[in-house]
Design a protein that fits this description.
Layout (H helix, E strand, L loop, with lengths): L1 H10 L1 H4 L14 H27 L1
Length: about 60
């Protein structure tokens, strides 16, 4: 089996080369996704503030 693969790679050297890496292009976020991220960020800050106030009292 290995001899067959070696023979094919020797006879057709272009098959042995890999395609060049193409960097993925990130897709832009929608306005709705940005608003949900903003709401989640504000919710996280409110939760952190609540935990800070609870821990500070003890």
């Amino acid at each position: 089996m290995n001899r067959i693969v070696l023979a094919i790679a020797t006879l057709c050297p272009t098959l042995a080369f890999a395609a060049p890496f193409q960097r993925p292009i990130p897709q832009p976020q929608s306005a709705t996704a940005e608003w949900w991220f903003f709401a989640a960020s504000v919710g996280l800050l409110v939760a952190l503030l609540a935990v800070h106030l609870l821990v500070r009292r003890r």
